[in-house]
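Why do we bother with holo predictions? Because pocket geometry can differ from the apo form. Keep that in mind while you read this record for tryptophan.
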Amino acid sequence: MVDSKKIVLTGVQPTGKLHLGNLLGAVSSWERMIDEYDCLFFLADQHAITMPYVPADLRKNTLDCVAQYIACGLDPTRCKIFLQSQIIGHTELMWVLGCLTPIGQLERMTQFKDKSKKVGESVCSGLLFYPVLMAADILLYNADLVPVGEDQKQHIELTRDLAIKFNNAFSPTFTVPEPYIGSTGARIMALQSPSNKMSKSDANQNSVVYITDTDDIIRKKLMSAVTDSGNSVTYDPDNKPGIANLLNIYAATKNLSLSVAVEEFAGLSSYQPFKQAVADAVIAKIHPIRERYLQLANDKEYLYSVLHDGRLDAQKRANRMIAKVYRKSGFVNE
Ligand code: TRP
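The structure, written out:
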């Protein structure tokens, strides 16, 4: 074997902006993943059209996301970055897998039920087929490990079912993937409601620090973070969730253990200087990322070259798998 490293496939929807929670959570664990595994990273732009959308926004968000991920440290010289829609094979494999998937299993998917409730009668078949496309994304590349959040675990289960079903029905073809539960990094909560996770869809946007925010905005958001009526900085997530969140943010941005972070602020009798220190730390972390992002976003040629590279590599892998699957499925190859 030339390359016996395990394959890790990460897929993300190109939905606009990355925030501090993404940066300190999943994104920060890539550094180690890239060293250890054969890492493929793609933007699921075909999944993005399962909900109502505006084409011009999709195009812009997709490139913008690529720029943001690279700015955050996803190094295109050490992993492959590509767009789902640019590879021939995802939807081809989806069809073959779809023919092995009972409709009932798709109708019972939690995400389908939740999303179709929102859209109502007009729910599209694409949304029903969403998990089959996701299974195809994963099986197409023989991924061993797939980093996903809690909400996507059910889709990985379906992927495993389909891989096993195909392997049993025809012959061993697909690697049966596992969800990757590496160190997922810090869990960052919303600044204005620290019992909820930081999320870009938060109704109160002051809860969310984006990696594209200016220094002033970051400081404003952190200084107005919800705390409590006390004045001592101690780590007590149940009774002082706001302060606990700020301590987690501080520790994660400065790469400190929580206990060292807590130590630094022991003895303070007001939250103000603590918040200033957290703001300084977050600004120090995000400022260079934002600068890099702005530079990359203006360099379309570079972004296209990264995607072109990724595309060539991914297409080669996809071609091999599709040829194998088509042969086993009984399609004539002439
Ligand atoms: N459904 C995933 C999400 O919304 C994105 C995704 C699409 C994905 N295809 C994938 C993730 C394949 C991992 C592997 O987060």
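Residues 300-329 form the longest helix (30 residues).
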